[in-house]
Amino acid sequence: MAEEKQIPYKIYLEEQEMPEAWYNVRADMKNKPAPLLNPETLEPMTAEELGVVFCDELVKQELDNENPYIKIPEEIRSFYKMYRPSPLVRAYCLEEKLQTPAKIYYKFEGNNTSGSHKLNSAIAQAYYAKNQGLKGVTTETGAGQWGTALSMACAYLNLDCRVFMVKCSYEQKPFRREVMRTYGAQVTPSPSETTEVGRKILKEHPGTSGSLGCAISEAVECATGMEGYRYVLGSVLNQVLLHQSIIGLETKAALDKYGVVPDIIIGCAGGGSNLGGLISPFMGEKLRGERDYQFIAVEPASCPTLTRGKFAYDFCDTGMVTPLAKMYTLGSGFIPSASHAGGLRYHGMNPVLSQLYADGLMEARSVEQTSVFEAAQMFARVEGILPAPESAHAIRAALDEAMKCKETGEEKTIVFGLTGTGYFDMFAYGRYNDGEMSDYIPTDAELQAGFDGIPKI
Amino acid sequence: MAEEKQIPYKIYLEEQEMPEAWYNVRADMKNKPAPLLNPETLEPMTAEELGVVFCDELVKQELDNENPYIKIPEEIRSFYKMYRPSPLVRAYCLEEKLQTPAKIYYKFEGNNTSGSHKLNSAIAQAYYAKNQGLKGVTTETGAGQWGTALSMACAYLNLDCRVFMVKCSYEQKPFRREVMRTYGAQVTPSPSETTEVGRKILKEHPGTSGSLGCAISEAVECATGMEGYRYVLGSVLNQVLLHQSIIGLETKAALDKYGVVPDIIIGCAGGGSNLGGLISPFMGEKLRGERDYQFIAVEPASCPTLTRGKFAYDFCDTGMVTPLAKMYTLGSGFIPSASHAGGLRYHGMNPVLSQLYADGLMEARSVEQTSVFEAAQMFARVEGILPAPESAHAIRAALDEAMKCKETGEEKTIVFGLTGTGYFDMFAYGRYNDGEMSDYIPTDAELQAGFDGIPKI
Questions:
Q1: Are residues A38 and A109 in the same domain?
Q2: Of A83, A384, A427, the CB nearest to B83
Q3: Which residue in B94, B104, B381, B432 has the most chain A C-beta atoms within 10 A of its own C-beta, making it the best mutation to test that interface?
Q4: pLDDT of B3 strictly over 70
Q5: Which positions in chain A touch B421 (Cβ < 8 Å)?
Q6: Is the pLDDT of residue A5 over 60?
Q7: What would the mean pLDDT of B294-313 be, rounded to a whole number?
Q8: What is the ipTM of this complex?
Q9: What CATH number should be reported for the domain holding residue B300?
Q10: What is the pLDDT at residue B339?
Q11: Are A137 and A232 in contact (CB under 8 A)?
Q12: Residue among A15, A83, A109 with most chain B CBs within 10 A, to mutate
């Protein structure tokens, strides 16, 4: 308890304490994640097949289930130093407000212009593309955090960046678009006339406001159709989890410095990039039988991939052009409705996290939107930081766990991931402030329609 | 040079290294800033007179020209710890890009939800109001950073906060408004029907989009008309400079840790809050004859207060309801046109800085808007951070100085203040990205019209 008092509001690691290697949790998994399958042959995708779309080094990382540590290239560490190590914050003000005996920490990834943790993988993917001698990369973006992060990374490396932004986001979030343009990215509203698939969709659905699935298809076509370009993705893939493990490694290093051992680790879950990155090194300890932790994935009730989905092989995109991944899924045709947590509106879940959840190594819960914004507002007022709606899902669960501790008197240590800031989400905050926000939980029939689209393998 | 290599990308002080007292540069000034005058009697304003509008403790600080150090109350330090100490960044990437022998550092104040340094004074002013047993405070906001900062501080202290937001900003920056509302502030577009002065202006100018001067008048009327309320202000006043001295004190402590002595210190200048805070402790050394530094104030060419203004007694607001301050001024009737750096569009300048400039202890230069955004975009791409347009004025001057070093081969150490982020200024960035931004320099005749309104004393 004497040492307890020494814990500062923010634990910053020194730059030389920043991890030198990413941690690949797959190496410690007994049940490995199932391989990606070629949808035509139903055989595992080979490195050659994946290399048409993705950079060579990233394909290697995607397929690597054995090496526990993969060295972070020096150039990437240099870039990381512009905004990392990120602070691990002791939420003293929140604890005081809640009058809970729980000790609450959060790892804050929002202190960079992209506004989220996405930059950790963006710079890695851009670096490997540059290193392969490529001219540029293409991607899609919905909420816009990934597109912004990739634009920043490409500006730094002088790499061309082409972002297909879902048309409704392009129009509703013009400021996100301008951030990407300021970083030199070419931003195209999707569907567009610039690709075959875009023109086809526009012909079939004139006036459509687009979808993530369509934007993925356009970005892939754009990359494969141009010499010296590859496609990159900000979540779902195992390589992304690998890069994001820096979040968990730093969190663990900071806690270790003060001899703190968490009981519960909480992350919001869309495609899994933040959650997987945060829990990886702790999950490694659990898998190796060294220590036990409670892991909680928090997802929106409007898009309940883990809590109500199926564990099956499915397409990663709505357009059904990607390989098949074995994962928890609501069906690639499931359209999540009216949720403002744009970054969590994904029908599937990273295969590693899916396997861990299937094996009972991790819990999941879903929370409703208004209760998420209630938590976000309270957190902003007490801790100062205005959270992204996605991040606020984790805050909601952390508050709930802290209040349980208040009832039971348990002094649990809770760590959650605060993935980013909500500066570009003020439209949603405005709806909440005006009392105009509602909740939505899909019916069993609606989910069944999504499940019916899952390929029968 | 061996030690030089050890300097990290970001110098973070430990929490216990955070200053325990603000530094009051007035104590070391031979020529003190001239006192505020009562516009009716032309006698110096007394503490009693000021106490009608401002909190008692803040009046004491406003009038204190003698005490060099004023202890920061423990409650304020606790709040500071949520986002301070702020990093002093070594701009390695920028130096590399410019291929300059100059060593560039910037003190980054944007890592908090208010997005700027304004929070340093907002929490202090809110704390003293709370401590005096007040119910709430009123203020005005233009660009919105001050209003946001005050809302955050009041939410933390559970103090009522009423912000009069210039109507055109209220409508053009709805997201700024929503941030303030999320922190529980009552935000009223000004002019409004809620005050006498507001109703009068609306009657005389139906459909007006408001002005800062009008918003100040409404905020003052609102505060003085309600039991338990006072008016607070985010710049211009000497008390604000005092609170903002934490920027300079931390900067100096961080540099001292590595034995670095700056040659040039640069800050953007609107009302003077950031510039004064950043340079204060260094200016103290210069005033005491201990060390010499080159100080550069950077202002927009569209609102050239120091570079083309008069040093005279003038009103602090357009409505001419405030005391008279002796300062550089363009005349309280001067309307700065079409500049997007909203925070720098002020006709006057803090009296301390005005006196220092008049005494030749500080330089000033003005820069044009498009060259400021050019610097901002370049900085964003190289250093990652998307700067506020206000902050980018300092970047512009720092780049110019660094390029001079490249020509002469001098290895000067340049420090500038990066006051905040530009997330809520993407409309302006968009205009720049679209090539639609233009420059504006007022003619001598336009300036003369402003000077003609300065009271003859």
A1: no
A2: A384
A3: B381
A4: no
A5: 113
A6: no
A7: 96
A8: 0.92
A9: 3.40.50.1100
A10: 56
A11: yes
A12: A83
- What's this model's pTM, rounded to 2 decimal places? 0.95
Residues on chain B bordering chain A, Cβ-to-Cβ distance under 8 angstroms:
8-10, 12, 14-15, 81-83, 93, 111-113, 115, 152, 155-156, 174-175, 178-179, 181-184, 377, 380-386, 421, 423-424, 426-427, 429-430, 433
Reply yes or no on whether the pLDDT at B181 is more than 50.
Answer: yes
Q: Look at residue A314 and tell me whether its pLDDT is greater than 90.
A: yes
Question: In Å, how far are A25, A32, A311, B38, B245 from A65, measured between CA atoms?
Answer: 8, 7, 20, 77, 53
Cα angle A31, A32, A36; round to 5: 140
Q: Which residue, A362, A364, A370, is CA-closest to A392?
A: A370
Per-residue confidence band for A103, with pLDDT thresholds at 50, 70 and 90: very high
pLDDT tens track for A248-267: 999 999 999 999 999 999 99
Give the range of the structural domain holding residue A55, as residue numbers without chain letter: 22-71+117-231
Among the partner residues B12, B14, B426, nearest to A178 by beta-carbon distance: B426
Say whether both B398 and B257 belong to one domain. Answer: yes
> Nearest Cβ partner of A182 from B111, B174, B429?
B429
Q: How many alpha carbons fall within 13 Å on the CB side of residue A273?
A: 27
Question: Is A427 among the domain residues?
Answer: yes
Q: Are residues A269 and A315 in the same domain?
A: yes
What angle separates helix A196-204 from helix A212-224, to the nearest 10 degrees?
150
Q: What is the pLDDT of residue A177?
A: 93
Boundary-marking domain end, from A231, A261, A281: A231
Please tell me the distance from the alpha carbon of residue B306 to that of residue B371, in angstroms, as a whole number. 19
Total of domains in chain B: 2
Taking CB atoms and an 8 Å cut-off, how many pairs form between chains A and B? 122
Out of A188, A213, A231, a domain closes at A231
A1: pLDDT strictly greater than 60 = no
CA atoms within 13 A on the CB side of A166: 20
Q: What is the pLDDT of residue B5?
A: 54
A77 in a domain, yes or no?
no
Structure tokens at B402: 């660094």
Looking at the structure, tell me whether residues A416 and A318 fall in a common domain. yes
Q: What's the CA dihedral at B438, B439, B443, B444 to 10 degrees?
A: 170
